[in-house]
Amino acid sequence: MAIPVVRAETFYTPPPQMPADAWNDVPAAERVWKWIEYRLGRRSLPPDGTVDETYYARINQNRWIADCTSCGSAAAVSPTDPRYACTECHWGWCALIFPDDVAAVEAGLMGLKPGLRNWWHPDDPANPDRPIDPVTEPGPMSEEL
User: Fold this and answer.
1) DSSP per residue over the chain, as a string?
2) Which residue, 16, 39, 40, 11, is CA-closest to 26?
3) pLDDT above 50 for 79
4) CA–CA separation, 87 vs 39, rounded Å?
5) Are the C-beta atoms of 31 and 8 separated by less than 8 Å?
6) Is residue 36 a contact partner of residue 85, using CB atoms and an 8 Å limit?
7) How do beta strands 50-56 and 63-67 pair?
8) 142 vs 37: CA distance, rounded Å
9) Distance of CA 96 to CAs 15, 55, 99, 104, 125, Å?
10) What is the pTM of this model?
11) Does residue 36 contact residue 75 with C-beta atoms inside 8 Å?
């Protein structure tokens, strides 16, 4: 049986001394805040507001993640709750962009070992494999000599 791509709801789980279903009522995007609270031993509240920004979710070594554009931190995320707020800098809730067919992307990675499963949204400007549009994005050879 192949190991599925990890999502926030399966990554951020209650500590062993709690019932396994203790956080079932916590939305996937908010589970990281419960997990941080437990790990740091202090109350950690998500931000109240949202910011007018969207992030692209990506798969990094078999985990759905989002990177904070404010501080560079990252957290596991889930297509079942497509939003993200940074636990490091407390940058407000941002909408996440996932592929139109999440199941197809995940299934397409199943032939790889979990540590080699990586995927970037084709429209993500940070995608290292995104083709460069020669009209709008000059390459290194476009400068006049």
Assistant:
1) -PPPPB-HHHHS---TTS-TTTTTTS-HHHHHHHHHHHHHTS-----SSEEEEEEE-EEETTEEEEE-TTT--EEE-BTTB-EE--TTT-PPEEEEE--S-HHHHHHHHTTS-GGG--B--TT-TT-TTPPP-TTTS--TT-S--
2) 11
3) yes
4) 12
5) yes
6) no
7) unpaired
8) 50
9) 27, 5, 10, 18, 14
10) 0.86
11) no
Calpha distance 74→68 (Å, rounded): 6
pLDDT on residue 145: 46
The candidate with the shortest Cα–Cα distance to 64, out of 50, 74, 73, is: 74
Q: What's the CA gap between 79 and 88, in Å, rounded? A: 22
Tens digits of residue pLDDT in 84-138: 999 999 888 999 999 999 999 999 999 999 999 999 999 999 999 887 776 765 5
Amino acid at 93: W
Integer Cα distance of 34 and 30 in angstroms: 7
